[in-house]
Amino acid sequence: MGIGYAASALHLISYLVIDETAPYTTTPPVSWHLPPMPGVRYMREPARFRSLAAQDIIVWRDRLAIKCRGQLGELLSWDETSDYSKSEEAATSADVLLRYVAAIADEGGPQALRGLVGANKPAHDEIDHARAGAERRGFTGRFRQLLLVYAFWLPFQRDMIIEEPDWQGKTERFGSSFRLEEEVRELREQIADADPRSKEWTSEREAPTRALWAAWQASETVARICAAATSLRLPLWTTG
Fold it and tell me: From CA 223, how far away is CA 184, in angstroms rounded?
């Protein structure tokens, strides 16, 4: 299981259709290989997915573009009718460690990463503490696009984060894909400088347990999707 990163128009995002009236059973299907889970309902029919129409996204985008034009210094725009899509998945554990390593560097500078050389994955409370520190530093941190935005980066140049309702009315943070790409590049340079062996851990290898190695591996995925998003001036989004 992993965290997916995708470069595409937003109308290509698929949402699971939840129908409370659909027929279900409490008996797991034959293909279910895990122990039965109490209270879980298994649908009798195949899962159905839906996507929004491109025009609905365009209406939302144009409204946001007008509202934020003064702050952005440009008119927010991309080809929402595009069918292009590039996506990759990073191991969930590696993605968590990428953000943990970013938080450590954000607080202590590049030299702080030398203290992680050879270190395995930290305990959950250490990760939570580092991420909470990044939230407290807010926009004063160096890796704000990576640490403060979790789902969507739009193709605008200014290093800022927009907090507005999305196309479904849910308040989200929207970062800059261009500045995210810049931050990931800088963090990769710092990781490689602290521990050159990190670069051996490409996306084709199993997720390593050492923090810097796992962070490097996840950063490869993010860097590639960032490059696709910025070169085509399309949004970048995650499944997690």
Answer: 7
